[in-house]
Amino acid sequence: LRFKTMARNQEKAMSMLSRWYTYQRELHNPGGPEKRPYLATECHSLQDSEKWRLQIIKEIARKVSQIQNAGLGEFRIRDLNDEINKLIREKGHWQDRIVELGGPNYHVIGPKNVRPRRKRTAGQ
C-alpha cells in the first residue's frame, strides 16, 4: 500500500515538472516553434529568408548522411532521395527570394569545388 502512494507522489511531481517546463517554453517562445513559410514569397525579411535557407541546407545534409547508411532498404533510399530533391528545389526558391529582397545571389556563388581541376601539360 505504501508503494502505491509513493508512485503517485512521483507521478504528481513529474506532472508538475512537465507543466513547469511547458510554461517556461511558452513564456520564452510564445506560439510554439516558428515554422518555415510554405511559400518563399510569404517571407518579407532578408534575415528570415537567410535563416530558412540555412535550415533547408542543414536538412539536406542530414538526409544525405542518412541515405549513405548501407543498411537502408531500396524503398527508404528512394523516399530519402525524393525528399532531398524536394528540399533542393525549395532551397532554390529561397535563393530566388533572397535575390528579390536584395541579398547575395547564391546561384552565382554556388558551392565551391572541393578539388579544383589541374591543367594538363603536354607531357601527361
SSE topology sketch:
Elements (H helix, E strand, L loop, with lengths): L1 H27 L17 H22 L6 H27 L5 H4 L15
Helix pairs in contact: 2-3
Descriptive report:
The chain has helices at residues 2-28, 46-67, 74-100, 106-109. It is mainly alpha-helical. Helix 2 runs antiparallel to helix 3. The mean pLDDT is 84. It has 4 helices and no strands. The N and C termini lie far apart (87 Å).
Distance between the termini: 87 Å
Total strands: the figure is 0
Instruction: Show unreliable segments.
Output: none
Largest sheet: none
Question: What is the string of helix and strand elements?
Answer: HHHH
Proportion of residues in extended strands: under 5%
Fraction of residues in H or I helices: 55-70%
Tell me the overall shape. Answer: extended
Mean of the pLDDT scores?
A: 84
What gyration radius follows from the Cα positions, in whole Å? 24 Å
Continuous helix count? 4
Annotation keywords:
mainly alpha
Write a short abstract of this structure.
The chain is mostly helical. Helix content is 65%, strand content 0%.
